[in-house]
Amino acid sequence: MCSENRTIIEFKDIVKVYGKANVKTYALNRVNLNIKKGEFVSIMGASGSGKSTSMNIIGCLDYPSSGEYLFDGVNVDKLNKNQMALLRRNYIGFVFQGFNLLGRTTALENVELPLIYRKTPTKERKELAFKALKKVGLESVIYNTPAELSGGQQQRVAIARAIVTNPLVLLADEPTGNLDSIKSIEIMNLLKQLNEELGITIIMVTHEEEMAQYSNRVIYFRDGHIESSLKKGYK
């Protein structure tokens, strides 16, 4: 049995190159990174710094050009596309800036989607989706469509959908980018609560220092390198 303090995400000299010959661009240049189970990490950096490329590799949406990426001890570089898809489906939850909800379906049905892909039986699927919505405080609006929800509520539905499969890692890409300051604080408090109470490892890309303060470590990227990794105290 692995230790609960185990490393979940590990980059070993990760390089990501775009282009060929004289027009090569190094999005990542020999990056080494370790994230342990239960951490809440923010990734920051200017446009083109490498933060989004890192998230794509962590989320198994892209391969590095060289180096090793280990997800909970598994060398992801040795997996084929089908195995990568299974890893994403079973162990990683995604939350995006734009919510990415299906407009004509209810909150409950949106949260059920990952379980449909898993072929979870209908009764169990609905029970799990309801529990996930309850965790984010939306048990009273499970039959509302996205158009009948506020932006903050829509992001809560997206978070419920991301956690319904009980993932090891939750990846949040600018989760407050489309929200006002009050709703942003509500979403960050929710992510902090899920991290503390459920032990979900959260990795968040953000350009807002105030939002990054909710995490317990902030990693700054610059020109394809990690410039610094600073531990923070929770708000």
From TrEMBL:
* Signal sequence coordinates: none
Q: Superkingdom, according to UniProt? A: Bacteria
- Name any GO cellular component annotation: membrane protein complex
What region holds the ABC transporter domain? 9-235
Name the Gene Ontology molecular function terms of this record.
ATP binding; ATP hydrolysis activity; transmembrane transporter activity
What's one Pfam family here? ABC_tran
The protein's UniProt keywords, in alphabetical order, are: ATP-binding, Nucleotide-binding, Transport
**SMART domains of this UniProt entry?**
AAA
Similarity comment text for this entry: Belongs to the ABC transporter superfamily. Macrolide exporter (TC 3.A.1.122) family.
Annotated protein name in UniProt: Macrolide ABC transporter ATP-binding protein
The source organism is: Malaciobacter halophilus
